[in-house]
Every structure is written in structure tokens, then in C-alpha cells.
Amino acid sequence: MKKCKIFFLAITFFTLCSLQLHAQNIKSVEGPSLVIHGGAGTILKENLTPELEQAYHSKLKQALETGYEILEKGGSSEEAVIAAILVMEDSPLFNAGKGAVFTNEGTNEMDASIMNGGDGSAGAVAGIKTVKNPILAAQAVKNNSEHVMLSGEGAELFARDRGLELVDPSYFYTERRKEQLEKLKKAEQSNEEGRIQRWKDWKYGTVGAVALDKQGNICAATSTGGMTNKKYGRIGDAPVIGAGTFANRICGVSATGHGEYFIRSVVAYDIAARMEYQNKSLAEASYGVVMKKLKLLGGGGGVIALDSKGNISMIFNTSGMYRGYMQKGKEAKTLIFKMADG
């Protein structure tokens, strides 16, 4: 009996240690904070060349420093998350903006959302094809529309009327994303289940940011190209307030992963609700949703979250998540793999 108890405790210990490799909680420091992500999924070190790995770190660092400079100068959390996401949307490395993945029809359809925790205002766009920076369209909806979410041609017309930059759809073409689509479609035609799953895992590539400014206000934002080979105008969790993005006076959350599960689980809001109604800490709430609730349903992905005190949580149940954070007096810190891999 004693041996069984020791064995059980050992299994529990190693399980917890394994899970902690996929979670990072940063304690608050005096001053503003910024946390970002560039997508979660099957991200393995052996699949990235040293040059590509460095490119991801450099771009994440650029996004952090760009956004944090605004916070440091007294700018708002909304300005900071927009600035950080613009850096990632303009890079072909991430599945958002320039690097958006292809639909089954060979087009790029993008979604984005933003929510200001101070006043509860929110805006989102879905299925847009010609707006250079979808996050700016989401912000325009938040600030200049009576609605929360606009989609398709209507969203693009609204963006045009607000003076946002529109581009020819060819702007979003990248050879890397086209190759991913072709390989997934070929695997589906051959009915090769293993290869199909492998290429589907590449769908995780959303970008997001959450910031706390000097005034104590939180803002969260998310932008994505969605899922490779998506059909019939599919929309994931990124533009859904409460699923992929949420912010109030308690915390802010941006999610990345298999959107259908994040919508069903109302991931972003659930983290905030657990903090408010169950008195959970940011770390406890994030862990409970991502590593327990979401994982039990079969949903892969992760979140970045930030509370009103400046505590940060970056947690994922996949093999990796492009992520980083920056706080007062500290250099930008970027990570890709689970904690053991740095």
C-alpha cells in the first residue's frame, strides 16, 4: 500500500512538473506591463532552422519594444497593443496580416478584435480580404461604430470609409503559406491521416497583445488569418469577444489555438470570470481553463493574460507558443518552446 502511495505521488509530481513546463507566470513590478503572443501549436525546435528561430525572436522583441515604448511615455494600453500587433501583422512570419494563411479557395480571409477594459468598448472584424492591417479595422469599429462586429464586404466598406489602407489581395501572398495549403490539400486527397493532422497543426498562428498602462487600464487585442484550408467563410475565436479576446478592470486575455474549442469554452471571459467570482489568481484561472477545461475537450492552444496588478500569465497545452513580455526596468523577454527549451 505504501509503495502504491509513493508511486502515485511520484506520478502526480512528474505530471505537474510537465504541465508547468508549458506555463509561465511573471510577478508584477511597479509600472506598465506588456505581453504578446504569435501563435501556439506544434512548434518544435527541430522544425525551425537557427536562422528562422532567431527571426521569430527578433520580430517578437521588436513588437514588444515598439508597444512598450508607448507605455513608458505615458501612452494608453490601447495604443500599445495596436502598435505591437502592427509589427506582427506586417511580418510574413505570423498568421496575421501579411503572413495570413490560405483558405481552401486560395484566398486570405482575416479576423481581428480589440477590447478596452476601462470602458468595456470592443470592436471586431471577420472575413476581410483587402484591409492591410485588420487590427486597425477592429479598432475603427470599436471607436466609430454602434456595432461590435462587422464582416466581409461590409467590414471592408466601413474600413474604406474610415480611411484605412486597402491593398490588393496579392499583398497577402507568401510562398510559405501557399505551400502549406497545397501540402494539406494533397494529404487530404490521399487520405493520409497522419500528414493531414501534421499540416492542420500549422493552423495555430494568431497574434495578440495585452497591456497595462500607467493609468491602470488594461486593453487586449487579437488578429489572425484563421485556419489553413478553411472553407465556407469559417470564422474562429479571434474576433469573438469573450472567446479569443476579453478585457475588463480585472484582467485582459488574448487567445490562440483551435478556435472552435475556444468559442465553445468562452476561454477569454472564463478566465476573467474565475478571477471575479471564484477569487482565483490570474495564474490559477488561466491554468484551470487552458490545462484542464480546454484540454479535456480536446482543444489545443494557449493564452496570454495580464491582471490589474501587472501579473502576467503565458500558458499553453501545445508543444510551443511564440510569446514574450516586457516590464519596467527589464529587457524584452521572448520565448518559443516549453520552458525547458527556453
- Beta content comes to 15-25%
Mean pLDDT metric: 89
CATH superfamily: (Glycosyl)asparaginase
The residue ranges in which pLDDT falls below 50 over 5 or more consecutive positions are: 3-20
- The sequence of SSEs as H and E is HEEHHEEHEHHHEEEEHHHEEEE
**How many domains make up the coordinates?**
1
Shape: globular
Task: Trace the largest sheet across and list its strands.
Answer: 5-4-3-7-6-2-12-13
Structural class: alpha+beta
What share of the residues lie within helices? 25-40%
Q: What is the C-alpha radius of gyration, as a whole number of Å?
A: 19 Å
Broad CATH class = Alpha Beta
Could you tell me how far the N terminus lies from the C terminus, measured between alpha carbons in angstroms? 39 Å
- Main sheet, how many strands, which sense, barrel? 8 strands, mixed
Tell me what the CATH architecture is. Answer: 4-Layer Sandwich
Provide the CATH topology.
Answer: Glutamine Phosphoribosylpyrophosphate, subunit 1, domain 1
Count, helices: 10
Give a short summary of the structure:
The protein is of the alpha+beta class. Helices cover 39% and strands 23% of the residues.
Layout of helices and strands, plus pairs?
Layout lengths: L1 H19 L2 E4 L6 E9 L8 H23 L4 H13 L20 E7 L5 E7 L5 H11 L4 E3 H10 L13 H15 L3 H8 L6 E6 L5 E7 L20 E3 L3 E7 L1 H7 L1 H11 L4 H16 L3 E7 L4 E5 L3 E8 L5 E5 L5
Parallel strand pairs: 4-5
Antiparallel strand pairs: 1-11, 2-6, 2-12, 3-4, 3-7, 6-7, 8-9, 9-10, 10-11, 12-13
Description:
The protein is an alpha+beta fold and 342 residues long. The protein has a single domain (32-341), classed as (Glycosyl)asparaginase (Glutamine Phosphoribosylpyrophosphate, subunit 1, domain 1). The protein contains ten helices and 13 strands. The strands form two sheets. It has an eight-stranded mixed beta sheet with strand order 5-4-3-7-6-2-12-13. A five-stranded antiparallel beta sheet has the order 1-11-10-9-8. A hairpin with a 3-residue loop joins strand 8 and strand 9 (251-257). Helix 2 packs antiparallel against helix 3 (77-89), helix 3 packs antiparallel against helix 4 and helix 6 (175-189) packs antiparallel against helix 7 (193-200). The chain is globular and about 50 Å long. The N and C termini lie far apart (39 Å). The relative contact order is 0.20.
